[in-house]
Design brief:
The chain has 253 residues and is α+β, with helices and mostly antiparallel strands. Helices cover 16% and strands 42% of the residues. It is globular and about 45 Å long.
Length: 253
């Protein structure tokens, strides 16, 4: 199992969590789909529930705040969350939650990019974020699907230092982004989403069998059924709480 104990480089997607109206129902849904086991961190941390693979944290499910829509939030690593929040504002984004300390763990904030896609900021302390990668149940990829991908590229390059490369066979407005020369995800347009869909981040979780994962997703809708693509077999789902995510069988090559 590929594991990680060192902090993720600044600008790298390092964590993902789900704000759910019913955490028990969310764990019941995601356990069979992604093969997760769960650890409730307790009342002190609002029953934030870690989703684990082989005893190592891959993601989390937590209770949504009143009026908060269910959604997956992708977190980008930062060496200084307060400085990152200032950079977000300076480059046209919006800070939703100013970074604050979670004792013993790190500093967390949330923000919107210039297209309105929400993301998190995570400055590691005792917790680095994801402790497993490249394994079924772990975050494998992420797309920023934006109404203005050109402005989005400028924003993330300015705030996190990303660089970009075109992807043969992908839409013209789609590119991979790299952190320190390492490809870390993708950024592009709305990729055929229904009119009115807001900008968002889409997390892709690796699974050993895409079709079996979709079949296990009881109560989900499947806007993109299991499909073979030049980049591997994948599907996009909307969970019973209306949060979108993707499952992926692993990168080709």
């Amino acid at each position: 199992m590929p594991t990680r104990d060192a902090p993720w480089p600044a600008g790298t997607p390092c964590w993902v969590d789900h704000a759910a109206p019913d955490v028990d129902a969310a764990t019941a849904f995601y356990g069979p789909v992604l093969g997760w086991s769960f650890v409730d961190t307790g009342e002190q941390f609002g029953h934030y529930t870690l989703a684990q693979v082989g005893g190592r944290s891959a993601a989390a499910l937590g209770p949504a705040q009143p009026g908060q829509p269910a959604a997956w939030t992708l977190y980008l690593a930062s060496d200084d969350a307060a400085a990152t929040a200032r950079a977000v504002t300076e480059h046209g984004g919006t800070v939703l939650v100013e970074p604050f300390e979670i004792p013993g763990n790190g500093h967390l904030g949330t923000a919107l990019d210039t297209s309105g896609a929400a993301f998190g900021i995570w400055q590691h302390g005792g917790t680095i974020g994801a402790e497993v990668h490249g394994e079924p149940g772990a975050l494998l990829w992420e797309d920023a699907r934006l109404t203005d991908p050109v402005a989005g590229q400028e924003f993330y390059a300015s705030v996190f230092g990303w660089t970009y490369d075109a992807v043969p066979g992908a839409p013209d407005d789609y590119a991979t982004f790299s952190v320190g020369g390492e490809i870390a995800g993708g950024i592009g347009g709305m990729m055929g989403a229904p009119a009115g869909t807001p900008s968002h981040w889409l997390p892709y979780f690796m699974v050993s069998d895409v079709d079996a994962a979709v079949a296990a997703a009881v109560g989900a809708s499947v806007p993109m059924p299991p499909t073979d693509t030049p980049f591997g077999r994948m599907a996009i789902l909307v969970d019973p709480f209306d949060a979108s995510f993707a499952v992926h069988g692993g990168m080709e090559g």
